[in-house]
Write a structure and sequence with these properties.
By secondary structure, the chain is an alpha+beta fold. It is globular and about 75 Å long. The relative contact order is 0.09.
Length: 664
């Protein structure tokens, strides 16, 4: 990032080394480039205050502290360690880049009470965490994480959808954009973004969330602050009868139980000066614990034929479509004939209300389906509920791994208290030991768990296509969301959005239909999501019967990779539009999405090597797509570094362009 203010080398040395003496003196640390600086001082209430500046702009004062066993702890700032510059090469399988170099400056400050504060300054933001090395195990009654921001900022927040129990819900909602002094106090889940204007933004994230509750934020419009909120530790639980889903009925007067020695989660303040930087953030991934899976060669990203969204909606077959082997053989055939790697057996292959995933319903012969899929090179993935799998964890993992199942789609956690987080880690570890991949659905936002357990290849925590089956037409705005969350939610990890709708509707024509659902926006918009959205395990959500009638669309989408060698957002603005470029094995994939505003876009190919020529295939909105949303065109193009290609994105539209170098 570049700022108007440049910090001279002598001044930078002072920031790094000049104020580490007396215990009450502020400690200052700069990022490697000097563009971001952070100061830790002792606040009036004794809590450490972490102040962050980007160039000449003051961003935030964050009060950070722990209340341990009824006593506010860690109030005495001791002498900081000597700052260190760290450079680390990070392997990142299934991330938006397969590897990268991490560089940051770091110090650690003792706080007393067996606690310390670790601080890192990156060129892309600041992170801090508490570390404990005490004489005995302890309970954390509360954590203070208060972020005071200037009054003239705007907040991008995704609020809880459960006002009665705001910390128990599916982590799926649109983003509201409001001035800091008028934002709702209803807790919002992370990421949360502070917009300072002129492109400058700070996004709150967290990483390495292990054995600890996740953080929400609640806006204090009087103070102009975001206050951290954490789920209490569960005391008693019960089950919803229809899925045997565990939920909390009573809580303890504290948020976490802790061993005497541990590292707490990282609190991240990511700083961007251009929205295009946001989807490329590595901070959540970098700050997570390194991989605990020694061999990842068996983990295979891929595309998935999926039955739940289209409600097992087959046509022209001679059997009753539903949860039975004949239906799933049809989905396996579709997957095999089109090069899809997986079929998911979603809810219904076992009786959900009984909570026993070791017993299939009579209509399903699972060994026969797995054998048939293996013959056709299609893997089977089984849906289940988090606590149902957890209750039968070792037995289920062993049984289904031995049977040849490739993994689990795990659903309906819908909470992030300490016990829920521990369950997520426990399942990830067991699945890895049995070579089973995981898709965490109904789950809290990613916190780097996919670095620690790379067998988790996707997460939901997104207002995805499933919401089109029932959402209120007056409230849902999917095209705008589709050009918002890749920037904000995309900062913390991949998304199980489940795209691929073949019934597409304009803003005027869309309505929720459960059995034959439709998408908002155009057919080309749906296609573009396979490049714009990061998704190593991504669905084709609609019926094979509809795909067979749109063979050219399927033939275009399926070869698009699920992982890439490099990613760049070449243009865009959060909440309006996005144009992404990804590269895989020398081939280039460019895709754009717009909100309900139609947009004329000019593709510039000056990034191509001088003198080269490229053959491409463009999927774009048809001339009538503003009205007939399923109107699309697929055409061949030839481009060179001097070429300019105009593309019209219709209202709710998009485009995809695939390029390969011309053989010489």
């Amino acid at each position: 990032m570049k700022y108007l203010l440049q910090i001279p080398a002598a001044a930078l040395a002072a920031i790094l080394y000049g104020t580490l003496g007396a215990s009450a003196a502020p400690t200052r640390l700069a990022s490697p480039s000097g563009d971001i600086s952070v100061t830790v001082s002792e606040g009036s209430d004794g809590f450490p205050v972490i102040s962050v500046d980007a160039g000449s702009r003051h961003l935030v004062d964050a009060a950070a502290g722990l209340t341990i066993e009824g006593k506010e702890a860690g109030h005495k700032l001791g002498k900081a360690t000597k700052p260190r510059r760290v450079t680390e090469e990070i392997k990142a399988p299934f991330h938006h880049t397969p590897s990268y170099t991490d560089v940051y400056n770091t110090v650690t400050l003792p706080l007393g009470d067996g606690l310390a504060l670790e601080l890192r300054a990156y060129d892309s933001g600041v992170a801090y965490r508490f570390r404990a090395d005490r004489k005995a195990d302890f309970t954390v009654v509360a954590e203070t994480a208060d972020f005071d921001v200037p009054d003239d900022t705007r907040l991008w927040l995704s609020h809880s959808t459960n006002p009665k129990k705001p910390l128990a819900m599916a982590f799926q909602n649109f983003y509201t954009v409001t001035p800091a002094d008028s934002a709702s106090s209803l807790p919002a889940f992370l990421p949360a973004c502070v917009d300072y204007g002129d492109g400058l933004k700070m996004t709150l994230l967290e990483s390495d969330l292990e054995a600890y509750p996740g953080m929400f934020v609640s806006a204090d419009s009087v103070r102009g602050a975001l206050k951290g909120v954490f789920a209490p530790y569960p005391k008693a639980t019960d089950y919803y009868p229809w899925r045997r889903q565990l939920y909390v009925t009573e809580t303890e007067p504290y948020i976490a139980r802790s061993p005497k020695k541990r590292d707490f989660p990282w609190r991240i303040l990511a700083v961007t000066t251009d929205d295009r930087q946001m989807p490329l953030s590595n901070l959540v991934y970098s700050l997570a614990s390194s991989s605990r899976v020694a061999d990842t060669s068996w983990i295979r990203p891929g595309k998935v034929a999926w039955e739940w969204w289209n409600d097992w909606g087959l046509r022209g077959v001679d059997f009753k479509a539903g949860i039975n082997n004949a239906t799933y053989r049809k989905y396996i055939d579709f997957a095999a004939d089109n090069g899809l790697e997986y079929v998911v057996l979603d809810e219904g292959w076992y009786v959900p209300s009984e909570g026993d995933m070791l017993t299939t319903v009579p209509e399903i012969d699972l060994p026969e389906l797995i054998s048939y899929g293996k013959e056709r090179n299609v893997g089977i993935v089984l849906w289940t509920v988090f606590n149902v799998l957890d209750d039968q964890l070792e037995e289920a993992c062993r049984k289904y791994s031995d049977m040849g199942v490739k993994g689990f789609k795990v659903d309906f956690l819908d909470r992030d208290d300490q016990q829920a987080v521990e369950m997520a880690y426990r399942i990830a570890d067991a699945a890895a030991r049995h070579n089973l991949l995981l898709d965490y659905h109904g789950f809290y936002k990613p916190t780097g768990l996919n670095r620690t357990y790379p067998n988790i290849i996707n997460f939901e925590a997104v207002f995805g296509m499933e919401e089109m089956k029932w959402s209120d037409p007056g409230k849902v705005d999917m095209p705008r969301y589709d050009v918002t969350f890749p920037y904000l939610r995309g900062m913390c990890g991949p998304v199980d959005y489940t795209p691929g709708a073949m019934r597409n509707a304009s803003k005027a024509d869309w309505k929720p239909i459960y059995y034959n659902p439709m998408s908002q926006g155009t057919r080309a918009h749906q296609g573009a999501t396979y490049v714009v959205f990061e998704s190593p395990f991504t669905m084709l959500c609609d019926s094979p019967s509809l795909y067979e009638k749109n063979r050219d669309w399927v033939d275009y989408i399926v070869p698009i990779p699920e992982t890439f060698d490099s990613t760049e957002v070449i243009d865009g603005e959060m909440g309006r539009y996005i144009v992404s470029k990804r590269v895989k094995d020398g081939n280039i994939y460019i895709a754009g999405l717009t909100d309900w505003e139609g947009r004329d876009y000019l593709l510039d190919f000056s990034f191509l090597p001088e003198g080269s020529r490229w053959q491409g295939t463009l999927m774009r909105d048809g001339v009538n797509a503003d009205k007939e949303a399923d109107d699309y065109v697929i055409e061949s193009v030839t481009v060179s570094p001097t070429a300019k290609l105009p593309v019209r994105m219709a209202s709710g539209g998009g485009f995809v362009l695939t390029l390969s170098p011309e053989a010489r």
